[in-house]
Amino acid sequence: MSYYQRHVFFCVNQREGGAACCNNHGAQAMRDYAKERVKMLRLDSKSKRVRVNNAGCLDRCNEGPVIVVYPEDVWYTYVDKEDIDEIIEEHLRNGRVVERLRI
């Protein structure tokens, strides 16, 4: 069994020269927001064990911004905080994949 019940990685990579990358879409700020929401909802507790981390390039820049949730290996894209809230509520809290955001 995995140490974390769910482990969320946000690509926060910044490429040079204007190349497509997740951080062009404010990925770091969205990761910070997600981490705070998970804490606020107490999903990071010992019983829920949800962890939100930065990741370097996840090599899906043209589909970005992207996050991946393990152990399910579910990839998402998002546009705004409402999308992040939906992923947190549906997937991280209730175990249901958000199909409309899945890539």
Can you tell me about this structure?
The protein is an alpha+beta fold. Helices cover 26% and strands 20% of the residues. The protein contains two helices and four strands. It has helices spanning 27-40, 81-93, and strands spanning 6-11, 50-55, 66-70, 74-77. The protein has a four-stranded mixed β-sheet, with helices on one face. The mean pLDDT is 93.
Q: How would you summarize what this structure contains?
A:
The chain is α+β, with helices and mostly antiparallel strands and 103 residues long. It is 26% helix and 20% strand. It contains two helices and four strands.
Strand order of the largest sheet: 2-1-3-4
The quaternary structure here is: single chain
Helix and strand content put the structural class at alpha+beta
Order of helices and strands: EHEEEH
Count of DSSP H/I helices: 2
- The beta-strand count equals 4
> Helical proportion?
25-40%
Instruction: Outline the low-pLDDT stretches.
Output: none
Q: Look at the structure and give the mean pLDDT.
A: 93
